[in-house]
Model the fold of this input.
Amino acid sequence: MFDAIAPRYDLVNRVITFGLDRRWRARTVGALGLPAGSVVLDLACGTGDLAALVARGGCRVVGSDLSGGMLSARHHPFPAVQADALALPFASGSVDGIVCGYALRNFTDLGASLAEAARVLRAGGRLSVLEVATPEHPLVRRGFEMWFGRCVPAIGGLLSDAAAYRYLPASTAYLPGPDELRDLLHRAGFATVGRQLLHGGLSQVVTATRCGMPGGAA
Done:
């Protein structure tokens, strides 16, 4: 599915978010708080929007994605490998930071994928994840549900692949709530988990710091 939508993935993102996704991605990278020269993994990097922002900030970036089509469509020159999030081809503790954009709900085993992310991240390293959220205000939430559930599939069908853009809004059902996600991160080996809602809850940035040892030990 992601191979099929790769050629127009960025265009559809710009349209369905009215360009706001660019600001959200910048906030995600900024939330890492890492100095220039740090090594950052863009997990499920897609076509490379987050990776480009990481590199622009002076960090060294590498990407991974399960979709070969997405990797072929990346529009920035950064090294990337085709890999499952459950089995990343990187040494333990080899990266200083990890970013991930709109991918958690597509991982078949989220807890194990987060544990694998923790494995490749050094102690004290940072994780910053951009994902969809559900607005808390009833009117905003209703408008969001109509847009995301009805308009986005229609736009996706016109510009790209209709089946894929029916799946993507529906996939929010696989995303854990804030408390459950925090628990999954803690069990995977992360601490100081934070969450920031963007534009009234249209998206969220979740951050966490790698503990000294798996399981939450300092």
